[in-house]
Amino acid sequence: MICLSLQKLEFKALLRAVNHAEMSEIRLDLTEMSLREISKLFSKETNLIATCRIDIVGKEACIEKLTAAISGNWPGKKSKIKKYVDIEFDAPADYREQITAMARENGFGLILSYHNFSNTDPFERLMDITQKCFDAGADIAKIATTAIMTEEGTRTLKLYKHFPPEKLLAFSMGNAGKFTRILSLNLGAPFTFAAPTGELATAPGQPLAEEAKAAVSPKSYPHKINFKSLTPVIKAPASKSHAQRAVIAATLARGITNLYGYTPCNDTEAAVELAKKFGVEVKYSQKRGQLTIKSPGSNAISLEFAKSSTPLQFNCVESGLLSKLIIPISGHLSPSREITVTGKGTLLKREYKGVAEVVEKIGLNFESTDNYLPAKITGEIKGSNIQLSGKGGSQLVSGLLMALPLCPESSKIELEHPTSKPYIDLTLKTLRDFNVKITNNNYSQFVIPGRQRYRKKIFYQIQGDWSSAALMLTGAAISGNVTVKNLAINSSQADEKILDILRLAGVEMEVTEGPKYLIMCGDVPCAFRDNPEDEDSCSGKVEIRGGKGPLNAFEVDATDSPDLFPPLVVLAINCEGESRIKGVSRLYNKESNRAETLYTEFTRLGADIEIDGDYMIIRGGRELHGGYCNSHGDHRIAMALCIAALKIKEPLHIDNMECISKSYPGFLNNFKK
Fold first, then answer.
1. Of 563, 608, 634, 655, which residue is the catalytic one?
2. Over the stretch 290-349, which tens digit does the pLDDT of each residue have?
3. Which end of the chain has fewer CB within 10 Å, C or N?
4. CB under 8 Å to 324, separation ≥6 — which residues?
């Protein structure tokens, strides 16, 4: 049930709002009404809460207002209408006893509330406060804390495991705690609060009424997912991480480059469209996934851009990697032109904190609003010695590694706290393949000679995507035998680590390693000539013999491979015992806040998940149930939910499946209908 929290409205407006709501909380301390109007309002046959805070209007005024509310007509014994009075649990004892007695005499329930507007208390204290509320006679205990991080919101929700959920309102205030308000309903809360408009919200992070209604409406979840098995053979799509790097490298290389194994998705197509904006010719043939890029080279591109002073706009759509690659590269185009880097959807919600300070060291000005795109870039890139932190990921590091070799001056990057090292390896591999040389000193220092040029690649292999494969391999592990092909074994991709984790969980598998590089037979790769019907760019494959018995709980560090979190959560849910995944700090600035979304959506389905610092703890072995899930516009969340559905008896209903086109448009074709 959605309870509309009302304040600052005149009497007639309050009546109209109450008439259209399932339930309403009237903030008597924040609303100007006569005692007669209060009594009349609370005589209505509708679900109502009378709330008045001593710290706002004082004890005597609260007694007057609450007495007027309670003295109105109350529901009869057979009525389903609920009316409550809400007072602070630590209010003076005489006041609390007086209001409680009146409420009992007049058929009102009692809500005792605790609010922390600064932070979230330790869990032991929250337990103690909740118990004190019930000991004092509360029909409902309301515990409202303030979350600064997702973990704090999950701490408050943990109360639902220890008290009758139908008697508990436990949630967190603030933007970081907003997710707890709707999720509390899934955990059994009798209702949650919402605001009629943003200006009339009575607490920070309170959702709008329309937003809350949509969240609980089945109509908001049109995609029914009820798959129970995968197709026996699955071809992994191209790695979008590798493809985007290769497209940019080919764009900067003079001549014709042929990429093999390319499969389109929204992120890679965004890179292709950017290449075209650079004046590059691009042709795609679905046969063998051949992408041909004809470029005049980086020098000619810069000279052409310098002919005009008209502002430029580069749209990275929803690709965080592409935006971080193009920001430094933009510095080579034209110092006299203002360049705007923008995107759409989830990319506009991702924070670019620290980018301005880094690119300033190479001569660029990065101007944004509150560290979000769109951002304006001006200036001319120059080689430099740069110090930066890698805690936030490696995407900007990759952008610098791709842009700085083109500068006249040599450069050096000093990297503190490097993360996502395999993605740095993938960037360095791509650069080597295109004849760009960089010395990597244990990821803490990168020495970059200047005046280098990208060289075309007549034939270049795009690896199959281990991030997508990880989802399918996890699905196979929990459901049945599947072979995933078109994979490069022992690649530079971070998510190939899924093989080690599956082995740790006790999954039986056979890994076949093919040639690491395309060997050419004339103008055609030999693999294609020898097997004309086989258009796999990579000949490696993994055969999973799954679904045969209980899997083992595991503990892993996914700091360098954060995209593995969604399949690992699904895997852990299907393991016996407690699994621990490190690297939660890497999840907050993805397409969604994945710490929040993974916790929220799988908790909705009955999973036992906890966040403790940098660890996500999953207690597996319990059966999930069907339900309504929000993908949050995040392709990996949507796909992980589909994989989890393989072991759920009831169907799932998901709001948005279009988002999977960001990385894997053909994902749903891998399920047996």
1. 563
2. 999 999 999 999 999 988 889 999 999 999 999 999 999 999 987 888 999 999 999 999
3. C
4. 355, 395, 396, 398, 399
Location of structure tokens 């006041």: 95
Q: Which amino acid is at 182?
A: I
2-215: CATH class: alpha beta
Query: Would you call 563 a catalytic residue per the annotation?
Result: yes
Alpha helix ranges (H) inside 206-365:
209-216, 240-252, 266-277, 298-305, 320-329, 355-360
Contacts of 62 (CB under 8 A, 6+ apart): 28, 29, 52, 53, 54, 87, 95
DSSP lists the bridge partners of residue 193 as 3
218: its two tokens: 């089945």
- Which amino acid is it at 214? A
Q: What is the CA radius of gyration of the chain?
A: 29
Name 372's bridge partners.
369
What percent of the chain is modeled with pLDDT above 70? 96
- pTM equals 0.91
Helix (H, G, I), strand (E, B) or coil at 668: helix
Give tens-digit pLDDT for 440-467. 999 999 999 999 999 999 999 999 999 9
H or E element that contains 49 = strand 47-51
Distance of CA 51 to the CA centre of its chain: 36
* 64 within 8 A of 34, measured Cβ to Cβ: no
How many other CB atoms are there within 10 angstroms of residue 531's CB atom? 11
| End-to-end Cα spacing for the chain | 36
**H/E segment holding residue 654:** strand 652-654
Tokens of 370: 């509150």
